[in-house]
Amino acid sequence: MSKKCLWVSRICLLSLYCLLGLFIHSPAHAITLDYYVVQDQSEPLQIQEEGQNHRGIITDILMKALEGSPHELRIHTYPFNRMMTLLSDSQNANWITYGSPQWGGMQSVNLSSSPLFEVEHSIVSNTDDGFPYKSPDDLNGKIAVLLFGFDYPGLDVKIAKGQVSEVRVKNYDAAFRVVDRLKKNGGFVEMDIRLKYHLKRLGFTDQDYQLHKASNLIPNYNIHLAYSPNIAPQIKQFIDKRIIQMAETDEIKTIINKYL
User: Is the pTM of this model over 0.85?
Assistant: First the structure.
């Protein structure tokens, strides 16, 4: 072989090694995830202002999990029922939101391998009204104020049996107004983490409203990320791994504490 041919062969071989190195060390194929946010009902888990300025516990965790990766979020904000319809109609897409094994619909179908955190529920009443609650039977004949569209495991059974009446409201401001009108006849049932956030946001203290722990009515349960049924396996595996790492380093706990 001539020196010229040998030199050309070496150049070709070097180029092949360079291309192989780029292939091995290049980042994973970038995926755009459609992230669904509930409009005006999910604070502090998801906070938004007319579809902009997105933040909140779930949003911050997800953004932190994707930090430094080639993957991106495309955020969509919808009322709860509209969002659920879109999730059901887009089962083959790469979307993500949050959910729980205790819930129904698309928010319980394909969850993250590890939970993000555990939630408990309370019943809110006006402090001046002395609403009595120690056991689920104390709600019999009363009215439960609930948010439109959401599931309340345990309480839903009592409502279905006619033991408890329900009043559905669109947001937290309306819920507290209804509680004031109900007096001893009912209370607002909701996650502690949401209640504490909104009481603080509205400037209320324990002098205005009291929280009655309701774990004996709605057992504590875990919140997870919820993926589309046919999401690309590599993005699910990537986020699941990051969630485990963030839990071990207390990053998730730090994000939660920021909103309470």
Answer: no
Comparing CA positions, the residue from 244, 257, 254, 232 lying closest to residue 112 is 244
Cα distances from 123 to residues 3, 182, 188, 201, in angstroms, run 86, 13, 5, 18
Q: Are 66 and 72 in contact (CB under 8 A)?
A: yes
Which of these, 58, 197, 48, lies nearest to 124 by C-alpha position?
197
d(CA 151, CA 4): 76
Measured between alpha carbons, how far apart are the two ends of the chain, in Å?
Answer: 75
Question: Of the candidates 163, 120, 168, 156, which has an alpha carbon nearest to the alpha carbon of residue 139?
Answer: 163
In whole angstroms, how large is the CA radius of gyration of the chain? Answer: 24
Neighbours of 101 (CB within 10 A): 13
> Helix, strand, coil shares of the chain as percentages rounded to 5?
40, 25, 35
Integer Cα distance of 158 and 210 in angstroms: 23
Reply yes or no on whether the pLDDT at 51 is more than 80. yes
Q: Which two tokens stand for residue 5?
A: 């041919």
> What is the rounded distance in angstroms from the CA atom of residue 198 to the CA atom of residue 176?
10
Two structure tokens written together for 229: 């049924």
Partner residues linked to 124 by β-bridges: 188, 211
Q: What is the distance between the alpha carbons of residues 77 and 82, in angstroms, rounded to a whole number?
A: 10
* Cα separation, 35 vs 23, whole angstroms: 29
State the DSSP H helix or E strand holding residue 258, giving kind and residue range, or none if neither: helix 251-258
Q: Using one digit for the tens of pLDDT, what is the confidence trace for 186-200? A: 999 999 999 999 999
Q: How far apart are CA 111 and CA 94, in angstroms?
A: 13
What pLDDT is recorded for position 190? 94
